[in-house]
Every structure is written in structure tokens, then in C-alpha cells.
Amino acid sequence: MTRPVAVLFITHIFLFSIPSFALDFLYNSFGTITNGTNLTLINDARLESSVVRLTNDSNPFSFGRAYYPQKLTMKPSSNSTTLTSFSTSFVFSVLPAIASSPGFGLCFVLTNLTSPPGALASQYFGLFTNATVPVVAPLLAVEFDTGRNTEFNDPDDNHIGIDLNNVESIKVESAGYYSNSSSNGSFVPVSMKSGQNIHAWIDFDGTNFEINVTIAPIGVPKPSIPTLNYKNPVIANYVSNEMFVGFSASKTDFIEAQRILAWSLSDTGVAREINTNNLPVFSISSSSSLSDDAIAGIVACGRRPIDMTMEDDVEAVLKDWVRELYGQGRLIEAADRRIREEYEIEEMEMVLKLGLVCCHPDPMKRPNMKDVVAILVGADADAATPKELLGELARSGWDDVVGGSRGGGWGDSTEEAPLQPEPPV
């Protein structure tokens, strides 16, 4: 009779000496995510196509949070002297409607409560009350701050910080990365509020009470030297046995889109690698700025994005002129005469069409970089052609491109302006 009891006792001890629920997940996008099942969205946070938007543009003091539904075990037991280690990586984009407008960025957060009491919007990330009153529950955040608040001793408007129950960071570093290709690891600044996709890595070493934060633009391998390092046993005071893990952001009446595009986390090893090849790219407005792909295609015209007609002093927007020629079946006339004879007509038209497709007013409907490169180099037989992309965009609502008319989804004036077959230099 004693043997079964002993076995049962040993089994009981074994089961309760290891974490009950390990976390290991990978979201290469949020296109198939269900709120409440795969993600918990709080307040103004919402799913928007394949990304998570954390704030609402129309709400002057908007804030939102997105959490993984299952809590992360941070202490194996209540009297544990060490913390659980975990690693996470994610891709985010912060894009203000006006480049010079103040913004605040976003936070990666560990918190006891999905809605910390008294949390404010604006510069408080939707997590904190103010700089002098700590939050009630243990809270640890890594802020990716795109605004400078001198009352919080922010060094600049583009920095990363460690926040322990307080919006004033305990450790701060300017945003950027240390190049792996440089022998001395030279520092490369990175703007976190240009809309570009930023890859972030956070490595939490619970045994040594150490946090490493690393960022780099998409396409740059993870740098070997972290952007920010913070090591201090005091970290243990700001975590509890189990905590929610996720993101939080807030704004004022200035519009700033904070997006999470992908997310990976593991407390059993290194977080799985995110596939960054097909992530959407965001820009302020295609009516006022062209994407890199669009510029690459339209330079084949040999013109600046806006040229001035000398005859009637009317601005002719270059992309409108190219679009109109395409609609009239005269696209080749847009090619720069100085280089037109050096290339096959089909090749020149392909580049012009590709540039035109990349100017679509809706960033979500532009081709991704993989398709662009595959088309240009002819490396992928399965890649869509510019003609196919144009056809697909027309079916999805870009009828004015195929028809050659102005206005519509491009956000231009509905007033017709004469466009010259060949704009002057």
C-alpha cells in the first residue's frame, strides 16, 4: 500500500515543480486572428486587415491594448528567487499623419491587469497615470517612444526605454542598431516614426535579471549588440507570478497610426523567426509622397514627381500624367526620350506600369517587394506581371487607373486639368 502512495506523491511534486503552461507562438500576420481567441483587444485596439491598429484616428484621446490571451508565467512559484526567461520578436510601424506632429509611439508590456486603473492616453501610453504616481499593479514596459517629453527626462523624440511601474524610464537609449557588418559595430540611427517596418527583439534573462532590446529595419539581420541593455535585480519587484503580455499605445488629437504587423514569443527557448517577406508597407499618403517602388518605376520618365507647365502655369502631377497615358494606350510616350531607344519597348512599358501600380493610393493594394523584385529580375515564374497586378487593382476598386480618368481613390481634385502629352522639363 505504501508504494502507490509514494509514486503518487512523487508524481504530484514533479507536476507542480514545472511551469503548467508554456508559451510559444508565432503570428506572421494577423489576417486570420480572432479577437478573444488568439488575441485580446482592449478599448480602441482593433484588427485592420492583416495588422493590429492600437488607436482610433477619430478619437482625440484614444488608447488601445492587445494581449496574448494566456498569461505568461514569470515566477515558477510565489517564493521563487529567479524569474522565467523568455524571448520575443515583433514588427511594428508608427506613422504620424503629419511628419512634424508630436506622437508617442507604443509599448511592449508585462502587466497584472489588462486595464491598469487610472491609465491615461496622450504621452502615458494608455498604461500610466502620471510621472509621480506609480501604477498600482506590477508593470514592466519597453517603450518605443516617438515623442520627446522633457518632464519625463526624454533625451529625444526617437528612443527606447525600460519603464518600471512609471512612465519615466529607468534606462533610455536612442533608437538605432549596431551594424554587424562593421568591425567596430558602428551605430546606425533608425527613425521609428517614418512608417517603415521596424523589427524588434526583446530577450528577458530571468536568471540574471537582464533585459536586452534590439531593433533594426526589416531586412537587416538581428544585430549581435543590443540597442539597450538593462541588468538589475530590482526587475523582480515589478513582475508577479503570472502576467499578461502584449502592446499598448495612445494618442492625442494628432493622428499617429501605431501598428503591430507580426509577433513571436517563446518562454521555452528562442522565439521563432518571423517571415517578413510579405508584410504590408505604410506611407503617409501616396498623393503627397511616392513609395520607393513608385519612384524607381517612374524615374523612367526622366521627370520629377511634380513638373510645372510653363504655358499655363498649371501643376501637372507626374503620376497622373503617366496614368492618363496608360488609360489611352500611349504609355510608351511617358518614357524618357534620352533612354527610350536603349531598351526594348516591352521592358520600358513594364517598368512604367510597375511604377504606376506602386502608386496606388491604398498601401494595402500595392504589390509587395517580393513581387516587385521578381518582376524586375524575372527570377520567379509565379510572380504576377504588372498587367495582372493592374487588372487585380482595377477589380478591387481602382477603376480610374484602367479608365484613365482622374480623381476617385487617388484623392486628387475632381476638377479636370489639361495634361500635356509631353510635359516640359
From TrEMBL:
Catalytic activity: L-threonyl-[protein] + ATP = O-phospho-L-threonyl-[protein] + ADP + H(+); L-seryl-[protein] + ATP = O-phospho-L-seryl-[protein] + ADP + H(+)
Positions of the UniProt region annotated as Disordered: 400-425
Record-annotated Legume lectin domain positions: 23-280
PROSITE patterns the record matches: LECTIN_LEGUME_BETA
Location in or out of the cell: Cell membrane; Membrane
Lipid bilayer topology: Single-pass type I membrane protein
InterPro entries according to UniProt: ConA-like_dom_sf, Kinase-like_dom_sf, Lectin_legB_Mn/Ca_BS, Legume_lectin_dom, Leguminous_Lectin
Gene Ontology MF terms in the entry: ATP binding; carbohydrate binding; protein serine/threonine kinase activity
Top EC category: transferase
Sequence similarity: In the C-terminal section; belongs to the protein kinase superfamily. Ser/Thr protein kinase family. Belongs to the leguminous lectin family.
Record protein name field: non-specific serine/threonine protein kinase
Species whose genome carries this gene: Acer negundo
Upper classification of the organism: Eukaryota, Viridiplantae, Streptophyta, Embryophyta, Tracheophyta
